[in-house]
Amino acid sequence: MCTSWLPDDDNGCPHMGVDPRRSGWLHVLQRERLTAGLEASRGAPWSDEAWLDRRLAKRGFGVFPMALDWEPGKGGRSRDILLWSVSSRLLLIADAARQAGASVSESQLEVAQLRVLAASVGLFETLAELGDLESVKARRALCRDIETRLVARCPPTEHPLLDSNYHRFLVYTESRSVLRLAQACFAGTLDESLVAATLGESAVVRLGIVEAVQGLVLADGHLDTSERRLVRGLINLGGFTKEEEASLELAELPSVEALAREIQTPTQRVLVLRVLIAASLVDRDRSPAEDAYVDELAEAFGISAQEVARLHLDAGAHMDARPDLSSSLSRSATFKRINRSTQRYLERLVKQNMRALVTEAREMGDLVQLLSKKAREPLTDDEQRRMEAQLKDVLRAIPALAIFAAPGGALLLPILARLLPFQLMPDAFLDQDESV
Questions:
Q1: Are 266 and 322 in contact (CB under 8 A)?
Q2: Mapped to the 3 state alphabet, what secondary structure does 246-259 carry?
Q3: Which residues, in sequence order, are CB contacts of 409 under 8 Å at separation 6+?
Q4: Are 278 and 315 in contact (CB under 8 A)?
Q5: CA 242 to chain centre
Q6: 306, 315, 225, 308: which is closest to 278 by C-alpha?
Q7: Short-list 315, 231, 292, 303, CA closest to 267
Q8: CB 78 within 8 A of CB 159
Q9: Fold of 205-350
Q10: What is the pLDDT of residues 222-234, one digit of tens each?
């Protein structure tokens, strides 16, 4: 199973012969990862506030773009994600040893990995019963218990939200908890209260993203069938307890400020916005109220309008790569709606920066003449290329729009070509055209 979640480093791909449906697969992954783990754990301590996010990104969690290139293994796509995530978490635990400056043997690292994984899946009490895990029999027994918990959390391959941004959010959040527990393990502070606090924080964040989607779909005062189906899918995939599910039935949803307090890491915040933008398109269309909700939450998260616009573009690319996702959540033409809604969003962004655009366009070669001609008649191929090149130069000069000058931002060019000619007319005409 090879996946673009993985960066170009020593992560590699989980062994194609590993079958998570058979007992012992976790032990096989451990043996494969021990050599790489020991190498990772050697060296000077490396620690600062952003260390967790750097290591998670290095190991492929939360990496963009979101599309996956699957080579299915024996267990299907869902189990492939499980194998990759567990394999990468084993390396994260070794990373934590390095950060702590610990010098560990192969056996010590294996025991530490089991202790951390057991704590992350709610088996911390079992650790106390098994003692120091010196015997192979005790380690194998714990391995089987961890495997059972991990496989039980695996969504079925046909789940409509499998490999969605929401699924990635869950995998990232769980992996971040594993890394925090690993830090505590090598610091000698891994106890029942710390495990409970870490898992509790993870639950709050997972509940927060569902609450954010609930706030979005209720922003326009209407909840249709596809939106209900989406919320049910989120709760089902989230693996919540009955008590946690009950907490989602709130009379009043939390404010965006409260969500910003619950969801604090940059990667989690970006993933939340990706989920919301996709969620806003599962019904017939995104409403102005839903747009306003996304903008308000982005502001509370400290994410710029430029970045939000890029996320709108990425949402289209992700839905295009996953047609099964939209068809499972809604029977309507989701991808076409993404294009329409994204264009409206980008038009608003262009209009907010129109004065700067006009100033730059008037100073840009023969761009004004080319835009004027295009409004009346088709351009030649050479003229079209010149116009697009100069439009990109205009975008680069305006920070809020600079991202659209890069590859992948071509959607903005036809919008500019359509709106700019009106703004480049004499002022007397502009005063009469308030609709542009």
A1: no
A2: HHCCCCCCCCHHHH
A3: 310, 313, 395, 403
A4: yes
A5: 26
A6: 315
A7: 303
A8: yes
A9: TerB-like (1.10.3680)
A10: 777 888 888 888 9
- Please state, in angstroms and rounded to a whole number, the distance separating the CA atoms of residues 61 and 169: 9
Q: Which residues are CB-neighbours of 401 under 8 A, at least 6 positions away?
A: 306, 349, 350, 353, 357, 395, 412
Q: How far apart are CA 375 and CA 218, in angstroms?
A: 41
Nearest CA to 262 out of 250, 249, 253 is that of 253
Instruction: Specify the residue for token string 């959390």.
Output: 153
Residue closest to 357 by CA, chosen among 430, 435, 419: 419
pLDDT tens digits, one per residue of 417-428: 666 654 444 333
Domain boundaries, the chain: 25-190, 205-350, 353-432
| Residue 9, SS3 per DSSP | coil
Quote the CA–CA distance of 237 and 81 in Å, as a whole number. 14
Token representation of residue 138? 């005790």
Q: What is the mean pLDDT of each run of 10 residues along the chain (436 residues)?
A: 36 57 79 59 50 85 48 65 90 89 84 93 82 80 91 86 87 93 92 92 92 87 80 89 82 83 89 87 71 90 85 64 47 46 68 79 79 80 85 77 60 63 42 38
Listed residue (221, 171, 202) closest to 60, CA to CA = 171
Cα–Cα distance measured from residue 32 to residue 114, given in angstroms and rounded to the nearest whole number: 15
Q: Closest by alpha carbon to 89, among 181, 178, 167, 17? A: 178
Q: How many CA atoms lie within 13 A of 419 on its CB side?
A: 23
What pLDDT does residue 418 have?
Answer: 67
Per residue in 166-201, pLDDT (tens digit) is 898 999 999 999 999 999 999 999 999 999 999 999
